[in-house]
Amino acid sequence: DERLAPAPGGKSDKMTSVEIKGITKSYQPGVPVLKPIDLAIKPGELFFLLGPSGCGKSTLLRILAGLVEPDSGSIRFNDVEITRLPPEKRRAAMVFQNYALWPHLSVFENVAFGLRAAGEKKAEIEREVQTALELVRMDGYAGRKIPSLSGGQQQRVALARALAVKPALLLLDEPLSNLDARLRDTMRREIRRICKERKLTAIYVTHDRKEALSMADRLAVMDQGVIRQIDTPEKAYNAPREKFVASFLGDANFIGGQIDSAGRWQTAFGPLDADGISGTPGETVTAMIRPERIRFSDAPGNNVIEARLTGRSFTGESCEWEFEAAGEKFTVIESAPPERTPGRNYLLHFPAGHLIRMR
Ligand code: ADP
Ligand code: MG
Asked: pTM for this one?
């Protein structure tokens, strides 16, 4: 379809929207890996698929790239149906965890590969390779052989190879998992910078919540072939709709209870006020509060409970305190923590606005 493709290397600056409708996939009969997936990704968005290992993230990404065929459903790029198009017609470039570079070729030849395959002229290829290498800060390495590069440098080359063909869609599958923690931090910022500079639509797969929270414009939390929630990082973290999402994105305290005849929420800690929590008498209600939202209090009051300090884990800038009250355990994270005494009782305030009802 001409509307989709100037060939790789073409000059289309139009940002790509992606619409996924009812995509399903089983590799074996009766074992669905993707239950119907619906997802709309906006032009220029850096979108994350986040979920535990085996939940179907790579399968969905490969379906988008055209490397795996879905059983049903449709995919549209910029309103053009591409579900049955072969990979090379989609202008979707993929970056893999293991780089997948050609070790016997130079950096230049690796990055030039897609442009050569598309029949670009020599001068054009040289220009595009140079531009892509500059973008990933690897200019000056064009003549190097792949095995002489560090893991981080190899991943930059893999990124340059994907960018050189001016993809309509950039797909990244756990691209930083093989790098050490410090390098990963740098590369997170770099990849985000490049996507924004190039106004790329990108879909990034990871099981690492910090990666997703720190980089994403929006993210989808996946579990066993189902998308549980799609939101901005802030909304997904602060207002998860269910336990799985709450726990996957961070530490979470869950509090169970029941609505009493007066409409109040009765918990093991006594009645608690919580914004947005109401129900019919007898109804069971579970809420979540993040450990850093619980505050130490000087005086008793509404939503203040007394609890015994049972443990601590000090990291320098913050401390994770373990508490117990009414037979329930929970954690409190305090930044710039003072010294506190295990075994002692403390008063803790659970702000009504930070008790989030779970579905
Ligand atoms: P993720 O990327 O989230 O870890 P995958 O999409 O790789 O998940 O895998 C989802 C499920 O599909 C897993 O149970 C995995 O074992 C299975 N699977 C993935 N690829 C294949 C394949 N080519 N053949 C059979 N089963 C597969
Ligand atoms: Mg995977």
From this structure: 0.93
